[in-house]
Amino acid sequence: MKENISIEEFDNKKFKMRFVEQEDNKKAVLTHYLHNYDNGVKKHFEKEAKEYLKEIIEYKNDEEKLNLVSDVALQQLLFEVETVPFPTPKNYTFKFIDLFAGIGGFRMAMQNLGGKCVFTSEWDENAKKTYRANYGETPFGDITKERTKNYIPDDFDVLCAGFPCQAFSIAGKRGGFEDTRGTLFFDVAEVIKNRKPKAIFLENVKGLRNHNGGKTLATILNVLRNDLGYFVPEPQIVNAKNFGVPQNRERIYIVGFRNDLNIDSFSYPEPLEEKVFFGKVKEENVVPTKYYLSTQYLRTLISHKERHASKGNGFGYEIIKDDEISNAIVVGGMGRERNLVIDNRITDYTPTTHIKGEVNREGIRKMTPREWARLQGFPDNFIIPVADASAYKQFGNSVAVPAIQATAEKIIDLIKARL
Fold this sequence. Notes:
It is a single chain. By secondary structure, this protein is α/β, with parallel strands linked by helices. 39% of the residues lie in helices and 11% in strands. It folds into three domains: 1-83, no CATH class; 85-274 and 383-419, 3-Layer(aba) Sandwich (Rossmann fold), CATH 3.40.50.150; 284-367, no CATH class. The chain contains twelve helices and eleven strands. Helix 4 (105-112) packs across helix 12 (401-416).
């Protein structure tokens, strides 16, 4: 049954959405301005940032009856955005932008290599909270909007984007730039076209290779190579388990270099020889009872798996042993159930959440958000400021930092050689 809503209520909702968007944009402008306070990119955000700073100072003076000097207030704000777990490297050697940023997996990898992020965008509000808590910067919102794109500065070296996969309507057409309109790849391509970064680094699900009968990837490569003028080697499926994390996570990487750099070859990183297993990222201490499955839920999973097995399907829950590699962590569906673990350290079986049945006595539990963070290569000082449901979603949607970093290092080495 559809909810009835009056025109007045609808207009109020639209007003609230616009207000929230405006406030988020202000935070994004200000934090981007402060992060670039000591370099030329600062000018790109300066006019709007100073207007917002004036609002903050006037409000603070009015509320606290203080005569704050603007420079003092500015230094305080600078301290706040810099005193985060993962600040910009002091002596950065290249600049990049972070599109469809999520919680900053690309940013983590690029900063580890000495990079400075000069623009970031992400539409999910909870992901923005996590991003701000760790990097001191609020991402801009919807990258499909021209207003958001206008905040992107001209001078940066690498465009990073983990864009969602969508099919294109290219029946009977060449499958070029214009044919991608209405998709999120079009917005990435538009930024590349207008800003012309030296290099691009795109990440997507493995299924992109065969998506829409292979037409989607073919269109993307045609646009990058022929319409936008980039050398793009054959994309490669990269598995996170080969780069220091115990997760079987395959993703397609697309790398490109602007043609005038005269780069005509690229080698993806070789897998590391040493393999890491789940035991290395397992919680050291006893985890809260809420992560343990109830007896009823466990019975449901068992019967569900048996039912599928009888039909010849392999669908169902899985338990990952300490000397094994986890399945890919994903959002929704069986994401958590395919990565259960046995942890017999529990001593208190008193339920801490509302469950049907009792806490199981076999020690079977879900992985914690912190374990998911480690599976993606995020260090333990990465702040998780959101509820578990949002945390699982954010880490499940993230890139695997070590795999991204290994590939990015190859990219940076090549473009630095051309500077």
